[in-house]
Design a protein that fits this description.
This protein is 39% helix and 26% strand. It contains 2 helices and 5 strands. A 5-stranded antiparallel beta sheet has the order 4-3-2-1-5, with no helix packed on it. The termini are far apart.
């Protein structure tokens, strides 16, 4: 029993296996976290760039509005008879798009 406790543990194997493992972890990190997030960001930017007057949208606050006019970083939306200025990023979705459940 004492002999088994005093023995040195076996080495971890060749060093290249550790590099392959780290590379595999990096690829998993990229495909599971970075790539889906950048894809969603690109889709959001494309959706916001296509906004035009007359589109019915849902704002991030949950309000439904109709776009009155579009500027560079802002939009003017009709809410209950009044026109309000909002940032483009405040548009969560087009009202005609089906909602996705996560």
């Amino acid at each position: 029993m004492m002999y088994a406790l005093l023995q040195q543990p076996a080495s971890g194997g060749p060093a290249w296996i550790q590099f392959v493992f780290i590379g595999g972890m990096a690829l998993m990190f990229y495909f599971l976290l970075i790539r889906p997030q950048s894809k969603a960001r690109k889709e959001t930017e494309a959706r916001l760039s296509k906004l035009k007057a007359g589109d019915e949208v849902v704002l991030t606050s949950g309000l439904y509005a109709t776009i009155d006019r579009v500027e560079d970083k802002h939009i003017w939306v009709k809410l209950g008879g009044s026109v309000v200025k909002a940032r483009r990023a405040a548009v969560a979705a087009l009202a005609s798009e089906p909602e996705t459940q996560n």
